[in-house]
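## Example pair
The file below holds two records. Each record gives the amino-acid sequence first, followed by its structure token line.
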Amino acid sequence: MNISEVAKLTGLTAKAIRFYESKGVIKEASRSANGYRQYTAAQVEELQLIRRSRLVGFSLEECQELLSLSNNPNRRSADVKKKTLEKVAEIEAKIQELEGMKQTLLELANACPGDEGHDCPIIKGLTCCHDKK
């Protein structure tokens, strides 16, 4: 299967596929007589796993780990579950951080009259020398 067919099947761009190949995330595709890349069904499955893993927040390194587990016939589902729950905890922490940022910005916006005056509580709040914790 050539790269454009793989791109259609996986939802990845040809550039992304070549990137994953260049980074060693997937094995390099074999080359046909005319020099075009030829991908196997197994490589397509690997690329689908990578794409879906990236969509739910796994880093490239974490995708490589998941791919390694996927290709390991001796893997334990407990190891995959552990990585998944670690990612959930990381996402939860990021959500809390974003909620805090949102709350701070809303407080600053609510303190600002938003008029033609020079005084701006938002600028004052963002330049103040201490954080609220």
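Second record, same layout:
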Amino acid sequence: MDETRRDRDTEGRAHNARPRDGLGRPLPYGSPGVERQPEGVVRSPQETVREAQRLLDAGMPFHAHEVLEDAWKSGPVAERELWRGLAQLAVGLTHAARGNVTGGARLLRRGAAALTEFTEGSDALEPVESTDSADGGAPAHGIDIGALTGWARELAGRAEGPGAEPVNAAAEAPRLRGGSR
């Protein structure tokens, strides 16, 4: 491919076809990369959480973000902030792993703030499970909102702390549903 021309999809829209690494960084054309997530896939909430968790555990939060973004764009209006907040957490982890400490911390906090709408007392979603989290956050689709917001705020503080270095995305991956790693 001529690198001076923009990649286009079949409908002529700009679409970067360069291969990507596990953190979503573009690689030179012809380099081996990580298989990208297909765009626009409509999954059930359970399938979305399962696939996003698999990618997070594999140290691929950028790719998990793409799965969560599909849910954000295709899901019911009442759930859009949930999926958008989760996508922001994944992108925040991506930036923290890439060494962009300021951007990573900002996105982690923004995602945590978006999720607060789905804590106990909110009627935005009916909990799928009735497990409690440490700070009282009720799960939405089994997602432990309280634990995730705590994780995001703690990682944001570490990511921009003195002498902060890029984090290991797989080691820092959150659990979307309660339980230990």
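Notes on the second record: The longest helix spans residues 80-98. Residues 121-138 have pLDDT under 50 and may be disordered.
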